[in-house]
Design goal:
mainly beta; Jelly Rolls; single chain; 4-stranded antiparallel beta sheet; 2 helices; 20 strands; 5% helix
Length: 301
């Protein structure tokens, strides 16, 4: 497929994923648990994964990156993975946003290349992903925005109105560069109707933080959640990978959280061929070990 990661890039990603710690699969909002692996291949046929690769080369370079669905297919969720991963000082690519673009029929991330040393910056390839399906029900995207000042940590929520249920979520508007700004440390579902985002700010700069929920009409919760956790030492990088989605569900969105609040810069979040989700982070600000948890959200499509 044009625009997919190179074999060497995928090998590097696989090596990082050996740092996985724990993994669990749980229903979200009381959904039934797994029904076996048999229908998983059939489930994958109902969605299409498209990808496109970009390159960032300069310190504090920001680029708006979009990957679009083919033909008349519409986007569900998306992901981003960069190679090589962050270096020992945290030099690497991190997302300012992670959001569905319904009118553009794709997935958008504004990515930034951070380089604390500003000596010799290593170029990074950034591969964007989007899961696409046939036209779905009307999407309602509630937004909630807050301003985060330097030294602050704030949590906000976007909740589906009325009889609508979450099928995913995301965040936008963070603005950090090497010298400071605000960044997301959590973006995940906390129930069948609410998407939660947490952000912190450092240096002399603050910025806006927006939580986004993607909702559609349903009498019952739509998602089943799978998750995995790993620990990250100070100035260290680590990844985790969830179990595959249960039964005949497709992995359509990803999320993350980290603790203690404000110490981890989230780096990657990506769809895997086995219907699982992987994510990674760098312990940029912590003086002790941090925990990163990644979440995959599974939907009958």
């Amino acid at each position: 497929m044009a625009g997919t990661p190179t074999r060497s890039g995928l090998v590097a990603i696989a090596a990082v994923l050996t740092l996985i710690a724990t993994a669990v699969a749980l229903p979200l909002g009381g959904r039934d648990a797994a029904r076996g692996a048999g229908p998983r291949a059939q489930a994958a046929k109902s969605v299409t994964l498209k990808s496109k690769t970009f390159t960032l080369t300069r310190p504090d370079e920001k680029r708006r990156l979009v990957v679009r669905c083919p033909g008349r297919l519409v986007p569900l969720g998306g992901g981003m993975v960069s190679t090589p991963p962050p270096g020992p000082d945290g030099e690497g690519v991190y997302p300012h946003s992670s959001e569905r673009r319904g009118l553009q029929r794709g997935w958008h991330t504004t990515a930034v290349l951070i380089d604390p040393s500003r000596g010799s910056t290593t170029p990074r390839n950034v591969t964007m992903q989007v899961k696409c399906a046939r036209k779905q029900k009307h999407v309602t995207p509630p937004h909630t925005t807050v301003y985060v000042s330097p030294g602050q940590t704030k949590t906000i929520q976007a909740t589906c109105p009325g009889r609508r249920q979450l099928f995913g979520g995301g965040f936008q508007r963070t603005d950090f560069l090497t010298r400071g700004g605000d960044y997301a440390t959590e973006s995940r579902a906390i129930g069948s109707k609410t998407w939660q985002v947490t952000g912190s700010a450092f240096g002399e700069l603050g910025g806006e933080l927006t939580a986004i929920g993607y909702c559609r009409r349903s009498k019952k919760p739509l998602l089943t959640e799978v998750s995995a956790s790993t620990t990250i030492p100070p100035k260290g990088f680590a990844s985790a990978s969830t179990p595959s989605c249960p039964g005949n569900r497709n992995l359509v969105f990803g999320g993350f959280s980290s603790s203690p609040p404000g110490v981890v810069l989230i780096a990657d979040g990506m769809f895997n061929p086995d219907n699982s989700w992987s994510g990674s982070g760098f312990n940029y600000f912590g003086q002790s070990t941090a925990t990163l948890t990644v979440y995959g959200y599974c939907l009958k499509v």
